[in-house]
Amino acid sequence: MDVECKNKINCPVEATIKLIGGKYKAVILWHLMNQTLRYSEIHKRVSNATDKMLTQQLREMERDGLINRKVYPVVPPKTEYSLTDFGRTLSPILDAMCKWGNDYLEDK
Length: 108
Description:
By secondary structure, this protein is an alpha+beta fold. The chain has a single domain (12-107), classed as Arc Repressor Mutant, subunit A. Helices cover 54% and strands 13% of the residues. The protein contains six helices and three strands. The protein has helices at residues 12-20, 25-32, 39-45, 51-63, 85-88, 91-107; strands spanning 37-38, 67-72, 78-83. Strands 1-3-2 form a three-stranded antiparallel beta sheet. A hairpin with a 5-residue loop joins strand 2 (67-72) and strand 3. It is globular.
């Protein structure tokens, strides 16, 4: 791998980290990999995240084109999140992270 990382976002690893490197982004993406979830369902799965942090991470991923946000005009409000086609391209990365994490936990 002869890719030189520079100060700008010319580095492929930096570009990847910029998109999925938030505190809970990879975990949220993992949970959305094969399903659409409501905000409350995501919050249950990422229980350490505060409402503010979770909302911020979701907004950033929506802005970056990784997830879709669908708001239903009902009372109480219903919001669902799902991966975009672009977000689904992260599947091999998240699968590799999961495998590595499992191996690490088994060896620990």
